[in-house]
Amino acid sequence: MRLLLVEDEKRMSQALCEIFKLEKYEVDCFADGISGLNALESCIYDVAVLDVMLPGLNGYEIVKRARAQRVRTPILMLTAKSGPDDKVNGLDSGADDYLTKPFMTKELLARLRALCHRNINTSDGKLTFGDIQLDTSSAMLICTANGLSVRLSEKELHIMEYLIANQGRIMTKEQLAVKIWGFESDAEYNKVEVYMSFTRKKLSFIKAETEIKAVRGIGYELRCKYV
Asked: In principle, which of 60, 70, 81, 149 could form an S-S bond with 142, CB 3.0–4.6 Å?
């Protein structure tokens, strides 16, 4: 799981990063609102944790702008403000959850786990789009129209998960490379193209109407004539 943390208080940021890494999250940390928004809009994160009071842009504005760009990443907001109006403002801006400081580490991690597992397109580990269903537990890709299925490799599974989670958005090669191979990887764009080709062949094999379309000069988008 890749997590985005936007927190300008240095000690808090360092402490949270250590906690998240112990829980096996891959964490990217930013200390200002502009950098945080740019990172969030990359759509490479499974969940984001945002402080409210930030230099540049506050947490509310980050969430509003990200949701306006159709970023669906689950967002947990952290703040020292505990008034009802503050919580309402956070949730109304598009955040999924709201936690006030100080907080217990166990509660923070529990809320993060809940957000990571929350997806409007999932049911018992299954993702759906158009006429396909992806079973993430078995890595099986199924065409719901004809029942044909095929098993995906690890990279193909991650590609399909990412595209379904960001349906309706064009994902760039850079976003895919970072999401699938990570910031520290030496993965090049041609690797994205190779595995994208493999994944397309799997969709063709099960005779799905859903397809991965290349958008010239931008990236890839999942499309289906039924959607």
From this structure: 149
Tell me the pLDDT tens digit for each residue of 36-86. 999 999 888 889 999 999 999 999 999 999 988 888 889 999 987 666 666
How far apart, in whole angstroms, are the C-alpha atoms of residue 70 and residue 168? Answer: 9
Task: Determine the Cα–Cα distance for residues 84 and 67; give it in Å rounded to an integer.
Answer: 22
Dihedral angle computed from the Cα positions of residues 59, 64, 65 and 71, in that order, rounded to the nearest 10 degrees: 100
Q: Are the CB atoms for 183 and 171 separated by under 8 Å?
A: no
CA distance 131 to 142: 8
75 CB contacts (<8 Å, ≥6 apart)?
40, 47, 48, 49, 50, 63, 66, 94, 95, 96, 97, 115
Q: Which residue has the higher pLDDT, 189 or 43?
A: 43
Q: Of how many residues is the chain composed?
A: 227
Strand order in the sheet with 126-129: 122-123, 126-129, 132-135, 140-143, 149-151
